[in-house]
TrEMBL record:
<keyword id="KW-0663">Pyridoxal phosphate</keyword>
<keyword id="KW-0808">Transferase</keyword>
<dbReference type="GO" id="GO:0008483">
    <property type="term" value="F:transaminase activity"/>
</dbReference>
<dbReference type="Pfam" id="PF01041">
    <property type="entry name" value="DegT_DnrJ_EryC1"/>
</dbReference>
<dbReference type="InterPro" id="IPR015422">
    <property type="entry name" value="PyrdxlP-dep_Trfase_small"/>
</dbReference>
<keyword id="KW-0032">Aminotransferase</keyword>
<comment type="similarity">
    <text>Belongs to the DegT/DnrJ/EryC1 family.</text>
</comment>
<dbReference type="InterPro" id="IPR000653">
    <property type="entry name" value="DegT/StrS_aminotransferase"/>
</dbReference>
<protein>
    <submittedName>
        <fullName>DegT/DnrJ/EryC1/StrS family aminotransferase</fullName>
    </submittedName>
</protein>
<dbReference type="InterPro" id="IPR015421">
    <property type="entry name" value="PyrdxlP-dep_Trfase_major"/>
</dbReference>
<dbReference type="InterPro" id="IPR015424">
    <property type="entry name" value="PyrdxlP-dep_Trfase"/>
</dbReference>
């Protein structure tokens, strides 16, 4: 049997092993080692004049961002509904309340019109939301011209969830740097990985310094343990940072490979009418973390589940898009603004294998399964 083709698997072809070996020889395995500093500094060329601190997950980075903006019990925070649960869960950890907003068709990210409608309605109810969580889903930048203008107009800060969009940019500005605070994730399937990890980003040095303090158990800088605040154990260790540095050194390559995975699929599948791909809007540059397709069942003759199972039988992993949070039981009763864009995109969508090290041969195998299904479906349609 041939090897399965996975959705998004990591690739350690750089200096990861060498760096990890180096840390293991040192007494500094936890936070505070030299690799942590090197890893953090390695982001400067991408995010400058913003800075970054490395944390132990993207989820804890979102939690930290909310804490730094003073979000507490009873507050409301606006959040894109079409996203992974980790964008919204930290709001609930704090006893605060999410308000979900629909996506727009161009970018699949938060719809500026629905966002403003949500803000106006919350204000009318006498509630001013404390923050807006914007996600760059699947690596595609959100429509920041409009979203930043709304954030400024209503003086509500943005937290940019750039967990999936390290290496993406909009009008030449890197994703992660559009809000008061931003976050990256270095989970196993993301564009670069530290096994598990994340980062908090800001251009406000004081705020980030406060984040570092709170993420290190709010430990005062004295030789014994004295605490003036309740902190968190959220800092990244030196071992994952060593791995992260090896990964970060090859970021450009990983992004250009994922982008060519996308263009290869477009070429390989161009005969399959009924399938469409998400285009970049003017000014947008996507890292193409995952290649996603939309299936118009009436034209293609098959839906996402038929395609997913056909791929699965050929040992190819594909996955539905993130299920919008407002559709899910865990978030029942949470206010939602917008129409049914996110829901429609979700129902027609599928993520295809998109690892940076995916070969053209593997992609051809994936495309053959899709084209076979298309042929069978169109014969049975006649
Ligand atoms: C992966 C992801 C996160 C969470 O990151 P972790 O490092 O897994 O905690 C948050 N938001 C989005 C959109 C993600 O894809």
């Amino acid at each position: 049997m041939s090897k399965p083709i996975l959705l998004s698997s990591p690739n350690l072809e750089g200096n990861e092993k060498k760096y990890i070996e180096e840390v293991l020889q040192s007494p500094f395995l936890a936070a505070g080692g030299s690799f942590l500093e090197k890893f953090e500094n390695g982001f400067s060329p991408i995010i400058s004049p913003y800075n970054l601190i490395a944390l132990n997950s993207g989820t804890s980075a979102i939690h930290m961002a909310l804490v730094l903006l003073g979000v507490s019990a009873g507050d409301e925070v606006i959040c894109q509904s079409f996203t992974f649960c980790a964008s919204a869960n930290p709001i609930i950890y704090l006893g605060a309340k999410p308000v979900f907003v629909d996506s727009e068709e161009d970018t699949w990210n938060i719809c500026p019109i629905a966002l403003e409608e949500a803000i106006k309605d919350r204000l009318k109810l006498g509630i001013k939301p404390k923050a807006i969580i914007v996600v760059d889903l699947f690596g595609m930048p959100a429509k920041y011209d409009d979203i930043c203008a709304i954030s400024e107009k209503y003086e509500i800060p943005i937290i940019e969830d750039a967990a999936e969009s390290l290496g993406s940019s909009y009008r030449g500005k890197s994703c992660g740097t559009f809000g008061k605070l931003g976050i990256f994730s270095f989970n196993g399937n993301k564009i670069i990985t530290t096994g598990g990890g994340g980062a908090l980003i800001s251009d406000d040095v004081k705020l980030l310094e406060r984040g570092k303090y709170l993420a290190t158990q709010a430990r005062e800088k004295i030789h014994y343990f004295e605490h003036h605040a309740i902190g968190y154990n959220y800092r990244m260790g030196n071992v994952p940072a060593a791995m992260g540095l090896g990964q970060l050194e090859l970021l450009d390559e990983k992004v250009s490979k994922r982008r060519s995975v996308f263009t290869n699929y477009v070429k390989l599948l161009h005969l399959c009418t009924g399938l469409s791909f998400l285009e970049e809007i003017e000014g947008a540059y996507s890292n193409r973390w995952l290649t996603t397709i939309q299936i118009d069942e009436e034209v293609s003759g098959f839906d996402r589940e038929m395609l997913r199972t056909a791929l699965e039988s050929a040992q190819i992993e594909s996955r539905y898009l993130w299920q919008p949070l407002h559709m899910q039981l865990a978030y029942k009763g949470i206010p939602y603004y917008g129409a049914d864009n996110a829901e429609n995109i979700f129902k027609k969508g599928l993520c295809l294998p998109s690892s940076a090290h995916l070969t053209l041969e593997d992609q051809t195998i994936v495309a053959k399964v899709i084209l076979n299904l298309y042929q069978k479906a169109s014969i049975s349609n006649v």
